[in-house]
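Thread: "does anyone have the structure for this chain?"

Original post by V.I.:
We have the sequence but no experimental structure in hand. Need at least a predicted one for the grant figures.
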Amino acid sequence: MSKLKVVGEKSLTNSSRVVGLLAQLEKINTDSTEPDTARYVTSKILHLAQSQEKTRREMTTKGSTGMEILLSTLENTKDLQTVLNILSILVELVSSGGGRRASFLVAKGGSQILLQLLMNASKESPPHEELMVQTHSILAKIGPKDKKFGVKARVNGALNVTLNLVKQHFQNYRLVMPCLQLLRVYSTNSVNAVSLGKNGVVELMFKIIGPFSKKNSGLMRVALDTLAALLKSKTNARRAVDRGYVQVLLTIYVDWHRHDNRHRNMLIRKGILQSLKSVTNIKLGRKAFIDANGMKILYNTSQECLAVRTLDPLVNTSSLIMRKCFPKNRLPLPTIKSSFHFQLPVIPVTGPVAQLYSLPPEDDVLDESDDNEDADFEAEHEVENEDDLDQNFKRFQSRFFRFYTTHLQNDDIETDINKLRPQQVPGRTIEELKMYEHLFPELVDDFQDYELISKEPKPFVIEGKVRGPIVVPTAGEEASGSSRSVKKGAGVKEKVSPKGEEATEDARGSDRTLPQQLGGQNRAAASAHSFSSDIVKALDRITLQNVPSQVSPGVAAGMRKDCGLPLSVLSCTKACPHVATCGSTLFEGRTGQLGKLCCTGVETEDEEDSESSSSVEQASSVEVPDGPTLHDSDLYIEIVKTTKSVPEYSEVAYPDYFGHIPPPFKEPILERPYGVQRTKIAQDIERLIHQNDILDRVAYDLDNPNYATPEDGDILKFNSKFESGNLRKVIQIRKSEYDLILNSDINSNHYHQWFYFEVSGMRPGIAYRFNIINCEKSNSQFNYGMQPLMYSVQEALNARPWWIRVGTDICYYKNHFSRSSVAAGGQKGKSYYTITFTVSFPHKDDVCYFAYHYPYTYSTLQMHLQKLESAHNPQQIYFRKDVLCETLSGNSCPLVTITAMPESNYYEHICQFRNRPYIFLSARVHPGETNASWVMKGTLEYLMSNSPTAQSLRESYIFKIVPMLNPDGVINGNHRCSLSGEDLNRQWHSPHPDLHPTIYHAKGLLQYLAAVKRSPLVYCDYHGHSRKKNVFMYGCSIKETVWHTHDNAASCDVVEDMGYRTLPKILSHIAPAFCMSSCSFVVEKSKESTARVVVWREIGVQRSYTMESTLCGCDQGRYKGLQIGTRELEEMGAKFCVGLLRLKRLTSTLEYNLPSNMFDFENDLIESSCKVTSPTTYVLDEDEPRFLEEVDYSAESNDELEVELVENTGDYEPSAQEEALSDSEVSRAHMP
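Reply from O.Q.:
Generated one for you, tokens below.
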């Protein structure tokens, strides 16, 4: 054993009394001749350590040699009393001051010296009791702080010393207690646990623990903690199962539960549960637990504990054990593949679709064995490692390495700068790209055949010289007494007086009806209250063939036009100083009342922008019509008839037919009640315990074409056979509880998230529980305040045609249904997750619809585009709707071009028209992200509006828009994929023209623009985000990507234009839902085939973005604490347009001459003031903490590496300098 180097007195930190005593002790060590003096000095030091915190602090202060002197004395002295004194001093030092002092002792070599002391003391017969008590006590305290303690103890032979002491002095509780504490520390090393188990330690623990007793409860608690640590070894757990100890633990637990009436021994009860938790980690343990009736025992005891909040740890641990032991069930499906099949024109050679087609026709719902543990002999017979590394330390290293690589050096971050640098490669020849010429007529048209606004040439105005404030819409605060415009169905024109004042009536006065039209004749319809229920009862659903004949003539009249919605028209009473009249015309040649957006206040540009703007842009509101302005029920039906779906749908959902308007009230993020998850888990466990109470009755089955809807009045009726619908099977569990199973994406066996279905036959006043049982993601915003959406037909007929957030007792948790390895990326033992929510319906025999998010179908898009095209002013707005291509199922993928018409067909104006920069926008590549379509709707309506700001924007850019990149997926109710079964946003690198036509041709458009030197100024792909709040962007930056690898040298060498940050920064100032701190500009390897990265890298578009909109709500800004709605989403689309107009000004070199030092601003930000919250998108990172009561029964916390893994949350926080700048200054600081 190496001698410790003793440092002289001059190194001591103080000249205090203890310092003098330590110096004296050091001198005694040198002489080694005065044991009495050493005894005296150590007793004095012990007295000071016991009485003065100052003394303890001086001895453990960094730089002090006090600890070294004590350990040196302990190592060299032969005097027993001196040894005991020093041990008592060490106990005093580490007993206070937290773990720091224990770590300090370990750092000075204390654990090795104390273990050697233990071995020397064990050679005496009998061993000195006090010495053993003190040595074990101090080792139990410092052992957890020494990463190699388990190895050291095993090498020194200390394991058997401690175990033999317990066996030989079984009744000596004073000695046994510290020995058990040290055994617990030994057992954290799996090799040590196996070794101790072979020597009978498990049997020994069961001799110590026993039924309820008021004596020696402390010893019982320590023994249980030790047992729980030992049973984490699967070898020891099997030994416990073989000896019947699972039944023993349950018996002991019930006894303590019954007798501990005052709950003073909760820690003992929890210790028993912890031992059960450890032993049930193996399959044999779970079987023994079930055979011993453990489910019923723990269920009953945990239910009795619910009334006492302090017993929550017992309830939660019991829930965890029961969930783990709940027998795994198979989903009640014939196959996990989609109910619908679409034959692909080409079968991919590799990838998940190729594997799907190559699978033999066998059961793919459940693996032969859902447990993969009992190949878990681990190496627990474990011969010791050659290098004798402590296994606990290896686990710590593994966890640390996983954390480090995930958060600091994730392998997914691209680090090769050469690969990061954009390399414009045409990909296709110029001859091949000429096929897209016809989609760019604006580049060659001379407008000789157009009736333009002006035939006279005017002085050419330098682009960008627009003046006046930009006024943008907000979805601002609703005054309690204010009312908002509620549009009628598009089939009934609203009457607008010359002054813009519209007829008004109270929103609640729904007894009044509006004229209905039938075949050109006006008829009066009955009151909503008198006929709405008749409609609901009479119409099973709207079909494409005809309007049901069994309804009354008045009802039919309404249904054929706008379903007779007695919508009350509300006047806009709030004064709006920037708007002449709120009833002004939205579009040229079309009248309609403005919605609430026009009255919620306006924003003006900063003074500098106003001064440099032209009179073209006067103060006015951004007129973004609410939904029904573009809704036409008749047109929708006609469009649906031409929409091609794989199931050949012939029905139309009422919400899509009626249309949706935002409700005139706010919907706050739901506060989750405490304990909701464990309550739901307990109700699930009741299914196993009380199986006779379960109905298990099929209520809907898409796989069975002969299935007939039950006529029983006590069962709900379900349907999803309409566009974008997704519901595969429903099983009635209890009278008012239903399990719902979602359909997989077509040509896929997973991706279950999007749902949209119809429910009817309900009774009011009954709380119905719905469980969607085959979700796949490991967490959801349903755990953090998000609610599903419901649309009531009765409410729509009563002038409230809107989707609203509903549901209580909402939570998302892992269930007992097994996922097959086929659907889990080859991993066995995975489970599905459940979304559960409870709803009470307000109306009897209503027809209601539930959806994951606000539905927006392909037919709705086509209807909106037709309405926009027919309503625009062709002299003012250049609007083209082309077909980009046909999808796999033969639907057309629309391509929209929007810009301003040239002022005349003279050269100067045509030249200005053709030279406008392009903006390329796309959306809805993922069908389940319907919020992207609502944002796109806001963008399209803003671009087509007659406001001066919109006209200025059109005069600044040419917009090429693909509003729906995945029509087939949207139509058929997919969540992620197209009919090819692939995520189209992972196909941009090498899209297949036959399998991915929309991506192939959208990329072709961009390649064509690059080939003719007209690459877009901005590319943005609209998406939705399921795990984060707010709206934010992902961009591409070499410098920030390299910075995240912490290679500062490489980061400093990168020279990069910082203009990619300009647009997000502008949006963070003007859009209340936008959050700059959630933006990220890191490029990941896993995202190299996404639109954002490919357009940046291959097309050379610096400002290439993905804009993510939350599915839940906002946790910052004006909408903090509110769930997001279509009004806010459409507003975001309009704000994006306003941001582009500001971007135009800030990037105009003719407009601004910025000082050169402004360009160093972002570099300084990156190099000095950056704070990273989460550097990579490859992490399953949520923006919320887990709930305290949430049971973590997952041994699979890293989940499969899904392709849809959450995008990055990391970003740089603004510096103080940046916060001090004005809006325009900050925006210009980001200018290239």
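V.I.: this helps a lot. The chain has a mean pLDDT of 77.
O.Q.: and DSSP finds 45 helices and 22 strands in the chain.
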